[in-house]
Design goal:
The chain has about 140 residues and is α+β, with helices and mostly antiparallel strands. The protein has one domain. Helix content is about 15%, strand content about 50%. A five-stranded antiparallel beta sheet has the order 2-1-9-8-6, with no helix packed on it. A four-stranded antiparallel beta sheet has the order 3-4-5-7, with no helix packed on it. Strand 1 and strand 2 form a beta hairpin. It is globular and about 45 Å long. It starts with a helix and ends in a 5-residue tail after the last strand.
């Protein structure tokens, strides 16, 4: 019985040690938003190929970011709000690609309706999302 426990513990430790590099952060993201209701900001510590999210509770928003290890220069960004009509980007898109190599990005976001088919939808501007990416040198 002791040998089984010992073997099980060694197997778990070996798995943790071998996968430890994937648990470390690959990049940080400073996220901020400004709307007519105010401002809020947060910092994310993220891992490539994993969805990373930060709440911005003062504004009732949540930002999510995904960066692939294969394309670290391109971040897929989404923004969600407590209000179901928020948040969309240019052309009523639910997400946007951001150049993560830029020193800082300012992305306007809108309230309204999602794009459907070939319909032209013009939504009301709700605010601006600010993003700044910091990659760990040995990860890119």
């Amino acid at each position: 019985m002791r040998e089984r426990w010992f073997t099980a513990i060694l197997a778990v430790l070996a798995t943790l040690l071998l996968s430890g590099s994937t648990l470390a952060a690959d990049y940080d993201v400073e996220v901020g938003a400004e709307t007519g209701a105010g401002k809020d900001a947060g910092v994310l510590r993220c891992v490539f190929d994993k969805l990373c999210a930060v709440p911005l509770p003062a504004l009732g928003l949540k930002a999510s970011i995904y960066i692939s290890r294969k394309e670290p220069g391109l971040a897929d960004v989404s923004l969600y709000g407590d209000d179901p009509s928020c948040c969309y980007f240019t052309d009523a898109s639910g997400s946007i690609d951001v150049d993560s190599a830029k020193p800082a990005s300012r992305v306007p976001f809108f309230r309204g309706a999602r794009a459907r088919g070939g319909l032209f939808i013009r939504n009301e501007r709700a605010g601006t999302l600010f993003l700044r990416f910091h990659f760990l040198r040995d990860k890119v």
